[in-house]
Protein: Pro-sigmaK processing inhibitor BofA
Organism: Brevibacillus porteri
Amino acid sequence: MTTGWVIALIVVGILLVIAASKSVTGPIRWIGLGIMQVVIGALLLFFTNLVGELANFHIPINPVTALLVGLLRLPGLAALIVIKLWVM
């Protein structure tokens, strides 16, 4: 799937959520809070990878891991580190 189609599907999905709700501000606020959590999680993962370079340790930064760390903060980051060390 090309990038244009993915962006179009995301926009259509957001418009459907807004149309299904009674107000416009509610879904937009939740989407904004979700994006903020993903950004916070990505920053925490970035700094963890920065420090982890000393020990040759890396956790991939993708939307799933960033959202997990963004929502759970340090316990989520610790869980990803334990999972990474246990699996590898």
